[in-house]
Amino acid sequence: MDIPASEVWAALWPGAVPADPATSVIVADIRLPRAVLAWLVGASLAVSGAAFQGILQNPLADPFTIGVSTGAAFGASVAIFFGLASAPAWLGMGALPLTAMAGAFGALILVLALARSAGRLRRETLVLAGIVTATFLAACIALLKSLDEDSLASIVFWVMGSMSGRGWEHVGFAAPYMVVGCAAVFLHARELDILSMGDRQARTLGLDADKVRLRILLSASLLTGAAVSVSGVVGFVGLVVPHLVRLCLGAGHRTLLWSSAWLGGILLVWSDVAARLVLPQGQELPVGVVTALLGGPFFCLLLRRRSGKAL
Question: Does residue 293 fall inside a structural domain?
Answer without folding.
Answer: yes
